[in-house]
């Protein structure tokens, strides 16, 4: 058994054929304890049960296991899978089999065996379309109890499916077939089993055939069968059946009293006989499964076996996944409702099975896996021409797979062998890593996975780039259509993003960033559950208060480009949303199913299959390279998804900047190049967070908070140890100190000692907690008891972290629990949590980098909210605040601050501020009137410096946004664009490696001093005061602020917001804010141009680095807390629900015919991209100056690729003055094209050059 998801209860049934004796079925079911594992519990339990039944546990032919995620009933043993309905019954069963093993002669033989079904079910069962209406599963139990003459009381919906199979799977048994013949051939309504009374309330008056009647019917059929069974043989079955049916008719019509059918009309007798004979010959598990899926309402992943077919299992999928794997040389076939479960290693050398087949869970498919019955009778009769009992003429595909024979039956129509073979997949094995600290292993994998994502997008052509090409062209078409149409004053949806949980939160951030760079685009991001439930009409519609419902006709009208995000690729809601959207868009006037795109964690997934079957094509499927991750707290999967969306956004921006895109692009081509650099710098920052000094500080912080959490239990253990020692020995502390040395002569002294010892026993845990806090240097007066953690950051960060931490503590003990909340600090944190602040509340605060102009006020606002919470104190103690960010200033309200190392270049606003400070230091003073001149001169100087060297000026020492410093003076193309050799030589600059060049670079980038130093020295004190009023705030409220002295190391720990403790101007947020407010309008306009790239830095890079930093901290915290004294450690990689992948309805369900409003079925298995004509048309309109590669836009001549992805370290001596490799040293990466090597230098890779490392910070 493979335990990947679910596991609140577990069951295992094994069927052991033992001819000539009847087969044995050993069924074991257990309810899993909170911290137990299903697989660890069921295997020894089942082994013991087999041994007690004198059965070899490994002798079974079929094993049906199930890990349950409860949906319809509680986790009781009676509700656990595998299910059987009632007690097993014994009956006579006929089979058509060889006379002896190896014989080619077959005959009908009978044996006495138990007749029942063992079944597992994943999904939801709502009811059956029986007779003339839908019988809900709640009433179906009464129906089955009546017709089967049982008294089963079970709440599970799956158990009723087992009862249905008990009624309908009757092949070979005349007794069971007669009962089915009455139920399906004579009864006309479900209430006929209870005399016409209401089935849902009736408990008495069973009018279905009783045991005596059924026995008499069986005897009647046996009488005729004894004479005719020799004529019903293989291919001649149809020839003998007609006469056999006539003989049975004669017997029953002439002996109505004997068979208790006096009130039956002739047509009822004929219907009864025909249904009984057909059931006897054809109603095996496979045909019963096919008929069940046609009449059942719900979603189903089924596995069923029986005592009659104990060497086979029938699998089915409809609305729920089901996969099968096998190898030609391995006598085993694996199945599972989780695709990755069948990929696990099964051999001694750690290899998995070779091939895999995913059942069609969209249209429905059944597969029989088992031994061949050695004849063609089953196929001939069960699927013979004109047999309407099983849905018409259809022959299943029969394939020998080594471990057994598979019979494939596609319920939607005919299926040929080549169609089955085309769906075979070569299994990509899953590494068995479910041991040790798998959460920590996932965190360690983050840098490598993100680098792999960058490498995928850095290729000239790749699968993801092909997807981006088509997405871009279809987006352009959607925008152009909506620009032309006046849709009742309401713009149509251009892009629709959907997902669940982490995928949704990442999608929301992506949608916000997409709208920021394309302001004219309407982007909607909706939960897949909301979309799935709201696309329907009453009564199937699920109403969500506060949600502006997106209707199906709106999607058909707008034909938006859709992005469906799911890490597993088979999340129930997102998978079915993908199918519904494909159906809705296929029913548009212009077939637009190609507008649906997906992003998953691995290449192969159910959503990819849905896209391929829907005809959208492979160029609609992206993946993030994170693969299968077994830890329930998501880490690397979230990081890989965010990194992929960042690369996707960057690629769309690049495409739009190179074409006449039909909407405004808020970022320039230079910003896009800077964005590429920022993403690369972010990758290095994440590596530092996990592997560097920052990671060590974060882990230490996590351990400190872990000690907070474990404090109650440690105090309890120490208290218990003290009580045991003193009570057993008879010498409590005060008695030992006050009475024992002097004897017990003084009664008063004894009573005083006992009183003090009693008080010590009462307050011992509290005293011990103070002692532990003092010893560990923690806050002494924090509140005792369970701790609360409040995570404050941007929405996608705090929501993912709230899930992450709560899942790691899901299995914690009561004394070691943690209450976790996530909130946005600069929105509603004050309103939601200040009234809940108590001493010792743990507050993790993510701070944006306030040194960046457009983020300055944001950080100030967040710190103000933190102070408002921090000042809610009792006994001088408030919440314990830990801050994390890129600003190196620690606030006095924080007990600890970890500054994340910056690898990025400074933004234009940062460079301007620091240059102004340098100017102030060099010139001494300047007036307010001179301030505008100075700042303008600085901006011009930075721009002119970059222009002076032209192509020789490396981008790594330029400020981000330097292009806007020279606005109105012509474009600064030299830093960002490729130049010809002639243009480069025209500059006549020294070689990069020469001393002259290095001096020139230093001269251009060093802090400038005024040429009129004498004038500066003679400035008056009044002018100095004026300069100070410009660069630093003078007042905070009514309190005057003194001008600070230059920064020292201790200044790093000062509060930039508290008036009496200002840091130096270079560190103070208030000083920067005052400086920005006094900038002249022309400078502000230039700096405002940098806002989009600054905001992209915060949302795609800085917040992402904070997220990874918190991952490291909280993992360390949970790992420390999960190993309590004297107790077994709990597994931080899972919760009790173990809902790693939600493949069942959670909670919005969908039925097999539930495809949305006015659904029109599309052709399946169409290997054709139906949107190619739209893409080709937009290619013509969005022409670029260079021809694309592989039909896409070639960005290489215009934009650099990721330097982190190429991993090229270029030495100075190997690079000429334009940043290209010398021809002697070989071509560039990716095929030798110079454009492929473009990085931080002009036209080529300019990886950080060590000799200029200090300059890059200037």
TrEMBL record:
<dbReference type="InterPro" id="IPR017932">
    <property type="entry name" value="GATase_2_dom"/>
</dbReference>
<keyword id="KW-0472">Membrane</keyword>
<dbReference type="InterPro" id="IPR029055">
    <property type="entry name" value="Ntn_hydrolases_N"/>
</dbReference>
<feature type="region of interest" description="Disordered">
    <location>
        <begin position="1044"/>
        <end position="1063"/>
    </location>
</feature>
<feature type="transmembrane region" description="Helical">
    <location>
        <begin position="756"/>
        <end position="775"/>
    </location>
</feature>
<protein>
    <recommendedName>
        <fullName>Glutamine amidotransferase type-2 domain-containing protein</fullName>
    </recommendedName>
</protein>
<feature type="region of interest" description="Disordered">
    <location>
        <begin position="1"/>
        <end position="26"/>
    </location>
</feature>
<keyword id="KW-1133">Transmembrane helix</keyword>
<feature type="domain" description="Glutamine amidotransferase type-2">
    <location>
        <begin position="1"/>
        <end position="372"/>
    </location>
</feature>
<feature type="transmembrane region" description="Helical">
    <location>
        <begin position="721"/>
        <end position="744"/>
    </location>
</feature>
<keyword id="KW-0812">Transmembrane</keyword>
<feature type="region of interest" description="Disordered">
    <location>
        <begin position="1217"/>
        <end position="1258"/>
    </location>
</feature>
């Amino acid at each position: 058994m493979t335990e990947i998801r679910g596991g609140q209860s577990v069951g295992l049934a094994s069927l052991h054929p033992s001819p000539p004796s009847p087969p044995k079925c050993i069924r074991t079911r257990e309810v899993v304890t909170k911290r137990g594992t299903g697989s660890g519990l069921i295997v020894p339990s089942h082994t013991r049960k087999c041994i007690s039944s004198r059965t070899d546990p490994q002798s079974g032919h079929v094993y049906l296991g199930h890990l349950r995620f409860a949906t319809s009933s509680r986790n009781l043993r009676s509700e656990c899978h595998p299910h059987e309905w009632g007690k097993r019954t014994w009956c006579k069963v006929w089979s058509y089999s060889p006379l002896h093993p190896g014989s080619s002669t077959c005959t009908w033989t009978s044996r006495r065996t138990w007749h029942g079904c063992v079944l597992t079910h994943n999904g939801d069962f709502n009811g059956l379309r029986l007779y003339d209406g839908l019988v809900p599963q709640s009433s179906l139990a009464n129906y089955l109890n009546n017709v089967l003459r049982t008294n089963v009381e079970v709440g599970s919906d799956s158990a009723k499916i087992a009862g249905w199979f008990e009624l309908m799977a009757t092949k070979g048994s005349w007794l069971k077939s007669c009962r089915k013949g009455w139920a399906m051939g004579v009864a006309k309504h479900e209430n006929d089993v209870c005399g016409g009374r209401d089935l849902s309330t009736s408990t008495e008056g069973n009018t279905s055939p009783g045991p005596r009647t059924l026995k008499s019917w069986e005897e009647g059929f046996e009488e005729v069968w004894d004479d005719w069974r020799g004529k019903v043989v293989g291919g001649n079955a149809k020839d003998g059946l007609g006469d056999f049916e006539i003989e049975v008719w004669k017997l029953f019509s002439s002996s109505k009293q004997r068979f208790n059918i006096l009130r039956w009309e002739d047509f009822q007798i004929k219907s009864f006989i025909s249904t009984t004979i057909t059931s006897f010959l054809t109603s095996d598990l496979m045909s019963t499964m096919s008929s069940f899926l046609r009449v059942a309402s719900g979603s189903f992943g089924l596995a069923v076996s029986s005592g009659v077919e104990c060497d086979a299992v029938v699998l089915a999928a409809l609305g729920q996944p089901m996969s099968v794997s096998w190898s030609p040389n391995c006598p085993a076939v694996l199945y599972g409702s989780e695709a990755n479960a069948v990929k696990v290693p099964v051999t001694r050398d750690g290899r998995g099975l070779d091939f895999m087949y995913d059942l069609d869970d969209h249209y429905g498919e059944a597969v029989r896996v088992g031994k061949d019955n050695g004849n063609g009778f089953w196929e001939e009769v069960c699927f013979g021409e004109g047999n309407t009992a099983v849905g018409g003429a259809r022959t299943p595909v029969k394939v020998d797979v080594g471990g057994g024979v598979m019979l494939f039956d596609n319920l939607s129509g005919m299926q040929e062998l080549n169609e089955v073979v085309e769906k075979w997949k070569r299994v990509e094995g899953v590494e068995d890593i479910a041991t040790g600290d798998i959460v920590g292993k996932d965190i360690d994998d983050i840098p490598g996975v993100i680098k792999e994502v960058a490498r995928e997008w850095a290729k000239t052509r790749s699968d993801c780039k092909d997807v981006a090409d088509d997405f871009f062209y279809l987006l352009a078409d959607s925008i152009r259509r909506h620009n032309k149409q006046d849709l009742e004053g309401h713009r149509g949806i251009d892009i629709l993003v959907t997902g669940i949980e982490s995928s949704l939160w990442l999608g929301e951030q992506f949608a916000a960033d997409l709208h920021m760079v394309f302001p004219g685009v309407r982007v909607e991001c909706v939960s897949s559950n909301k979309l799935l439930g709201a696309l329907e009409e009453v009564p199937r519609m699920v109403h969500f208060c506060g949600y502006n419902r997106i209707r199906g006709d709106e999607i058909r009208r707008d034909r938006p480009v859709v992005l469906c995000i799911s890490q597993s690729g088979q999340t129930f809601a997102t998978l079915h949303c993908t199918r519904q959207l494909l159906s809705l868009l296929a029913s548009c006037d212009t077939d637009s199913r190609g507008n649906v795109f997906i992003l998953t964690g691995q290449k192969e997934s159910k959503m990819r299959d849905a896209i391929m079957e829907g005809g959208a094509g492979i160029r609609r499927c992206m993946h993030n390279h994170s693969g299968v991750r077994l830890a329930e707290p998501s880490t690397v999967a979230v990081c890989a998804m965010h990194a992929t969306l960042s690369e996707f956004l960057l690629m769309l921006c690049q495409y739009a900047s190179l074409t006449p895109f039909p909407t405004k692009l808020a970022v320039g081509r230079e910003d896009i190049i800077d964005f590429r650099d920022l993403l690369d710098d972010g990758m290095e920052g994440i590596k530092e967070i996990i592997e560097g000094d920052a990671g060590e500080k974060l882990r230490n912080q996590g351990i400190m908070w872990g000690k907070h959490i474990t404090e109650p239990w440690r105090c309890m253990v120490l208290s218990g140890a003290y009580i045991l020692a003193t009570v057993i020995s008879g010498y409590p502390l005060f008695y030992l100190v006050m009475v024992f040395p002097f004897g017990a002569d003084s009664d008063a002294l004894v009573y005083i000692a006992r009183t003090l010892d009693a008080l010590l026993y009462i307050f011992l845990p509290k005293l011990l907690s103070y002692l532990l806090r003092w010893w560990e240097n923690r806050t002494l007066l924090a509140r005792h008891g369970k701790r609360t953690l409040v995570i404050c950051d941007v929405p996608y960060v705090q929501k993912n972290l709230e899930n992450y931490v709560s899942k790691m503590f899901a299995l914690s003990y009561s004394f070691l629990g943690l209450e976790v909340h996530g909130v946005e600090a600069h929105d509603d944190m004050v309103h939601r949590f200040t009234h809940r602040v108590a001493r010792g509340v743990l507050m993790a605060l993510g701070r944006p980098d306030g040194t960046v102009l457009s983020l300055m006020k944001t950080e100030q606002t967040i710190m103000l909210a933190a102070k408002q919470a921090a000042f809610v104190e009792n006994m001088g103690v408030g919440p314990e605040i830990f801050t994390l960010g890129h600003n190196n200033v620690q606030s006095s309200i924080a007990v600890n601050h970890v500054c994340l190392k910056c690898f990025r270049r400074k933004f234009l606003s940062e460079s301007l501020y620091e240059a102004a400070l340098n100017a102030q230091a060099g010139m001494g003073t300047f007036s307010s009137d001179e301030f505008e001149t100075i700042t303008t001169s600085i901006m011009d100087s930075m721009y002119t410096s970059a222009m002076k060297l032209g192509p020789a000026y490396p981008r790594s020492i330029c400020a981000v946004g330097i292009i806007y410093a020279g606005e109105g003076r012509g474009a600064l193309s030299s830093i960002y664009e490729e130049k010809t050799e002639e243009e480069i030589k025209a500059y006549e600059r020294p070689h990069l490696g020469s001393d002259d060049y290095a001096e020139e670079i230093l001269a251009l980038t060093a802090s400038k001093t005024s040429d009129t130093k004498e004038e500066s020295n003679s400035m008056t004190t009044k002018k100095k005061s004026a300069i100070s009023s410009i660069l630093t705030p003078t007042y905070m409220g009514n309190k005057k602020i003194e001008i600070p002295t230059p920064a020292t190391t201790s200044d790093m720990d000062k509060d930039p917001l508290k008036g009496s403790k200002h840091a130096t101007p270079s560190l103070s947020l208030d000083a920067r804010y005052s400086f920005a407010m006094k900038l002249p309008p022309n400078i502000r306009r230039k700096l405002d141009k940098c806002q989009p790239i600054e905001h992209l830095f915060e949302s795609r890079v800085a917040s992402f680095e904070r997220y990874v930093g918190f991952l490291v901290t909280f993992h360390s915290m949970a790992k420390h807390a999960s190993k309590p004294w004297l107790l077994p450690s709990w597994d931080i990689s899972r919760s009790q629900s173990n809902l790693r992948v939600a493949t069942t309805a959670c909670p919005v369900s969908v039925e097999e015919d539930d495809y949305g409003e006015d659904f029109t079925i599309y052709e399946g298995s169409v290997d054709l991209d139906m949107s190619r004509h739209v893409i080709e048309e937009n290619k013509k309109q969005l022409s670029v100056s260079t021809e694309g590669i592989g039909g896409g836009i070639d960005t290489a001549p215009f934009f650099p690729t990721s330097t982190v992805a190429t991993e090229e370290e270029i030495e100075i001596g190997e690079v000429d003055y334009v940043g290209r490799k010398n021809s002697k040293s070989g071509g560039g990466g990716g095929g030798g094209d110079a454009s492929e090597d473009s990085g931080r230098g002009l036209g080529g890779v300019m990886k950080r050059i060590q000799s200029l490392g200090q300059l890059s910070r200037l």
